[in-house]
């Protein structure tokens, strides 16, 4: 085999390997393959900078912030409530002792 033939056969083997891997992934995960194809088609079709994309991203950000912040706010309120309860309980104990 000549040097030029070796140079051509290497990329062909690489492309063949990629094609085999892609075919196997498509057979094993057809739903994921369809989702990727739809996403790529949406972006290539010009949907990336559309109103629909802006609305979907806005809704996703709002849901994400609510999901992330709600537990933090709830935990902070619980801690404040516990501190308030403890401080009132301590005051009541001191008031009872002095009386």
Structure description:
The protein has 99 residues and is mainly α. The chain folds into two domains: 1-49; 50-99. It has three helices and no strands. Helix 1 (3-28) crosses helix 2. The longest helix has 48 residues, at 51-98. The termini are far apart.
Q: Which helices and strands appear, and what pairs or packs with what?
A:
Blueprint: H1 3-28, H2 30-44, H3 51-98
Low-confidence stretches: none
Mean model confidence by pLDDT: 83
Tell me the number of structural domains: 2
Number of distinct beta strands: 0
Task: Write out key terms for the chains shown.
single chain; 99 residues; 2 domains; 90% helix; 3 helices; mainly alpha
Summarize the structure.
The protein is an all-alpha fold and 99 residues long.
């Amino acid at each position: 085999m000549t040097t030029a033939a070796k140079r051509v056969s290497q990329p062909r083997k690489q492309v063949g390997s990629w094609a085999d891997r892609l075919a196997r992934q498509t057979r094993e995960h057809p739903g994921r393959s369809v989702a990727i194809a739809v996403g790529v088609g949406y972006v290539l079709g010009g949907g990336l900078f559309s109103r629909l994309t802006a609305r979907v991203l806005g809704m996703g950000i709002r849901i994400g912030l609510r999901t992330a912040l709600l537990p933090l706010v709830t935990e902070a309120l619980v801690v404040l409530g516990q501190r308030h309860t403890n401080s009132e309980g301590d005051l009541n104990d001191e008031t009872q002792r002095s009386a």
